[in-house]
Protein backbone atom coordinates (compact mmCIF):
# COMPACT_ATOMS: atom_id res chain seq x y z
CA UNK A 1 0.00 0.00 0.00
CA UNK A 2 2.87 2.36 0.89
CA UNK A 3 4.45 1.80 -2.53
CA UNK A 4 1.16 2.36 -4.34
CA UNK A 5 0.67 5.64 -2.47
CA UNK A 6 4.30 6.68 -3.15
CA UNK A 7 3.89 5.94 -6.84
CA UNK A 8 0.63 7.88 -7.02
CA UNK A 9 2.11 10.83 -5.12
CA UNK A 10 5.21 10.88 -7.33
CA UNK A 11 3.07 10.64 -10.48
CA UNK A 12 0.85 13.46 -9.26
CA UNK A 13 3.83 15.68 -8.44
CA UNK A 14 5.66 15.10 -11.69
CA UNK A 15 2.48 15.29 -13.73
CA UNK A 16 1.48 18.66 -12.29
CA UNK A 17 4.92 20.23 -12.44
CA UNK A 18 5.40 22.77 -15.22
CA UNK A 19 7.53 25.86 -15.71
CA UNK A 20 5.51 28.93 -16.59
CA UNK A 21 7.62 29.81 -19.62
CA UNK A 22 10.44 28.27 -21.57
CA UNK A 23 13.76 29.95 -22.25
CA UNK A 24 12.46 30.81 -25.71
CA UNK A 25 9.62 32.80 -24.13
CA UNK A 26 6.85 30.37 -25.06
CA UNK A 27 4.42 29.77 -22.22
CA UNK A 28 3.56 26.20 -21.34
CA UNK A 29 -0.01 25.09 -20.72
CA UNK A 30 -1.44 25.53 -17.24
CA UNK A 31 -4.87 25.73 -15.70
CA UNK A 32 -6.43 29.22 -15.22
CA UNK A 33 -6.24 28.98 -11.41
CA UNK A 34 -2.58 28.07 -11.69
CA UNK A 35 -1.97 31.02 -14.06
CA UNK A 36 -3.51 33.43 -11.56
CA UNK A 37 -1.42 32.02 -8.69
CA UNK A 38 1.76 32.44 -10.71
CA UNK A 39 1.44 36.04 -11.86
CA UNK A 40 3.79 37.34 -9.16
CA UNK A 41 6.55 34.97 -10.28
CA UNK A 42 5.85 34.10 -13.92
CA UNK A 43 8.94 31.90 -14.30
CA UNK A 44 8.69 29.92 -11.04
CA UNK A 45 8.18 26.19 -11.38
CA UNK A 46 5.11 25.11 -9.45
CA UNK A 47 4.53 21.80 -7.70
CA UNK A 48 0.97 21.31 -6.54
CA UNK A 49 0.56 19.33 -3.36
CA UNK A 50 -1.89 16.45 -3.77
CA UNK A 51 -4.73 16.41 -1.25
CA UNK A 52 -3.65 12.96 -0.07
CA UNK A 53 -0.12 14.04 0.88
CA UNK A 54 1.15 12.55 4.15
CA UNK A 55 0.54 14.73 7.21
CA UNK A 56 4.28 14.91 7.88
CA UNK A 57 4.87 16.60 4.51
CA UNK A 58 2.74 19.69 5.24
CA UNK A 59 5.50 21.36 7.24
CA UNK A 60 9.22 20.78 6.68
CA UNK A 61 10.76 18.15 8.96
CA UNK A 62 11.95 19.80 12.18
CA UNK A 63 15.04 17.59 12.25
CA UNK A 64 16.88 15.67 9.53
CA UNK A 65 14.92 12.43 9.16
CA UNK A 66 16.41 9.02 8.45
CA UNK A 67 16.68 8.57 4.69
CA UNK A 68 18.41 6.48 2.06
CA UNK A 69 19.35 8.30 -1.13
CA UNK A 70 21.93 7.27 -3.76
CA UNK A 71 24.93 9.17 -5.09
CA UNK A 72 24.27 9.81 -8.77
CA UNK A 73 27.90 9.37 -9.86
CA UNK A 74 28.58 6.07 -8.08
CA UNK A 75 25.17 4.65 -7.19
CA UNK A 76 26.41 4.18 -3.61
CA UNK A 77 23.85 4.52 -0.85
CA UNK A 78 23.94 7.78 1.13
CA UNK A 79 22.06 8.04 4.43
CA UNK A 80 21.62 10.60 7.20
CA UNK A 81 24.50 8.91 9.06
CA UNK A 82 26.88 9.86 6.21
CA UNK A 83 26.40 13.61 6.73
CA UNK A 84 29.55 15.23 8.14
CA UNK A 85 28.93 16.74 11.58
CA UNK A 86 29.55 20.20 13.02
CA UNK A 87 28.32 22.26 10.08
CA UNK A 88 25.13 23.42 8.39
CA UNK A 89 23.54 20.96 6.00
CA UNK A 90 21.48 22.13 3.03
CA UNK A 91 19.15 19.96 0.96
CA UNK A 92 18.04 21.40 -2.38
CA UNK A 93 15.14 19.50 -3.93
CA UNK A 94 15.38 20.19 -7.66
CA UNK A 95 14.33 19.19 -11.14
CA UNK A 96 17.20 19.13 -13.67
CA UNK A 97 15.02 20.79 -16.32
CA UNK A 98 13.84 23.63 -14.04
CA UNK A 99 15.32 26.97 -15.12
CA UNK A 100 15.22 28.35 -11.58
CA UNK A 101 17.07 25.30 -10.26
CA UNK A 102 19.69 25.78 -12.94
CA UNK A 103 20.07 29.49 -12.15
CA UNK A 104 20.36 28.93 -8.40
CA UNK A 105 23.00 26.25 -8.97
CA UNK A 106 25.03 28.56 -11.21
CA UNK A 107 24.85 31.33 -8.61
CA UNK A 108 25.92 28.96 -5.81
CA UNK A 109 28.82 27.69 -7.93
CA UNK A 110 30.09 31.22 -8.52
CA UNK A 111 30.11 31.74 -4.75
CA UNK A 112 31.59 28.40 -3.72
CA UNK A 113 34.31 30.12 -1.68
CA UNK A 114 31.64 31.13 0.83
CA UNK A 115 30.12 27.63 0.97
CA UNK A 116 33.16 25.45 1.72
CA UNK A 117 31.96 24.76 5.27
CA UNK A 118 28.37 23.85 4.36
CA UNK A 119 27.15 20.37 3.37
CA UNK A 120 25.17 20.85 0.16
CA UNK A 121 23.01 18.03 -1.21
CA UNK A 122 21.11 18.39 -4.47
CA UNK A 123 18.27 15.84 -4.30
CA UNK A 124 15.96 14.80 -7.12
CA UNK A 125 13.49 12.05 -7.92
CA UNK A 126 14.23 12.37 -11.65
CA UNK A 127 15.96 9.73 -13.72
CA UNK A 128 19.67 9.67 -12.73
CA UNK A 129 20.59 9.95 -16.42
CA UNK A 130 19.00 13.43 -16.43
CA UNK A 131 20.83 14.36 -13.21
CA UNK A 132 24.27 13.03 -14.17
CA UNK A 133 25.49 16.16 -15.98
CA UNK A 134 23.54 18.74 -13.97
CA UNK A 135 26.50 20.13 -11.99
CA UNK A 136 28.89 19.90 -14.94
CA UNK A 137 26.43 21.97 -16.99
CA UNK A 138 25.15 24.50 -14.45
CA UNK A 139 27.62 24.47 -11.55
CA UNK A 140 31.10 23.48 -12.74
CA UNK A 141 32.74 24.99 -9.67
CA UNK A 142 30.79 22.53 -7.48
CA UNK A 143 31.93 19.36 -9.28
CA UNK A 144 34.00 16.97 -7.13
CA UNK A 145 33.86 19.24 -4.07
CA UNK A 146 33.94 17.18 -0.86
CA UNK A 147 30.92 18.96 0.63
CA UNK A 148 28.67 18.82 -2.45
CA UNK A 149 26.76 15.78 -3.71
CA UNK A 150 23.95 15.09 -6.20
CA UNK A 151 21.62 12.46 -4.75
CA UNK A 152 18.96 10.32 -6.39
CA UNK A 153 15.81 9.85 -4.32
CA UNK A 154 14.81 6.50 -5.81
CA UNK A 155 11.96 5.81 -3.39
CA UNK A 156 10.50 9.33 -3.15
CA UNK A 157 11.54 9.56 0.50
CA UNK A 158 12.03 13.32 0.41
CA UNK A 159 8.38 14.13 -0.18
CA UNK A 160 7.36 11.54 2.41
CA UNK A 161 9.81 12.48 5.17
CA UNK A 162 11.07 16.01 4.59
CA UNK A 163 8.38 18.05 2.85
CA UNK A 164 6.24 18.44 -0.26
CA UNK A 165 7.29 21.83 -1.70
CA UNK A 166 5.14 24.22 -3.71
CA UNK A 167 7.96 25.24 -6.06
CA UNK A 168 11.41 24.17 -7.22
CA UNK A 169 14.10 24.67 -6.16
CA UNK A 170 13.11 23.96 -2.55
CA UNK A 171 15.83 24.73 0.02
CA UNK A 172 16.08 23.25 3.53
CA UNK A 173 18.81 24.36 5.94
CA UNK A 174 19.62 22.29 9.01
CA UNK A 175 22.10 23.35 11.68
CA UNK A 176 24.99 21.31 13.09
CA UNK A 177 22.49 19.89 15.62
CA UNK A 178 20.32 18.54 12.78
CA UNK A 179 17.47 20.97 13.53
CA UNK A 180 15.72 22.98 10.82
CA UNK A 181 16.95 26.58 10.67
CA UNK A 182 15.11 27.80 7.57
CA UNK A 183 13.40 26.61 4.40
CA UNK A 184 11.74 28.09 1.35
CA UNK A 185 10.27 27.09 -1.99
CA UNK A 186 11.34 28.75 -5.23
CA UNK A 187 14.32 30.86 -6.17
CA UNK A 188 15.52 33.75 -4.00
CA UNK A 189 18.24 36.39 -4.38
CA UNK A 190 21.68 34.81 -4.08
CA UNK A 191 22.79 37.16 -1.28
CA UNK A 192 19.88 35.97 0.86
CA UNK A 193 20.60 32.33 0.00
CA UNK A 194 24.28 32.60 0.89
CA UNK A 195 23.52 34.37 4.16
CA UNK A 196 21.00 31.72 5.19
CA UNK A 197 23.19 28.78 4.13
CA UNK A 198 26.09 30.07 6.24
CA UNK A 199 24.25 31.61 9.22
TrEMBL record:
PROSITE patterns: PROKAR_LIPOPROTEIN, THIOREDOXIN_2. Residues 23-57 are annotated as: Disordered. Pfam families: AhpC-TSA (PF00578). Residues 23-38 have a biased composition (Polar residues). One of its GO terms (molecular function) is oxidoreductase activity. Residues 53-199 form the Thioredoxin domain. Gene3D superfamilies: Glutaredoxin. Residues 39-57 have a biased composition (Low complexity). It comes from the Bacteria. This is AhpC/TSA family protein.
Amino acid sequence: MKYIFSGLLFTALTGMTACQSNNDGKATHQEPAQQEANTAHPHQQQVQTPAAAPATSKEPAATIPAFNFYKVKSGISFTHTDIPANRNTVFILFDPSCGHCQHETTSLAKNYGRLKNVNIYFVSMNDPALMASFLETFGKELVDKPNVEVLYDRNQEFIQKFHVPAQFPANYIYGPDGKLKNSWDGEKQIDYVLAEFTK
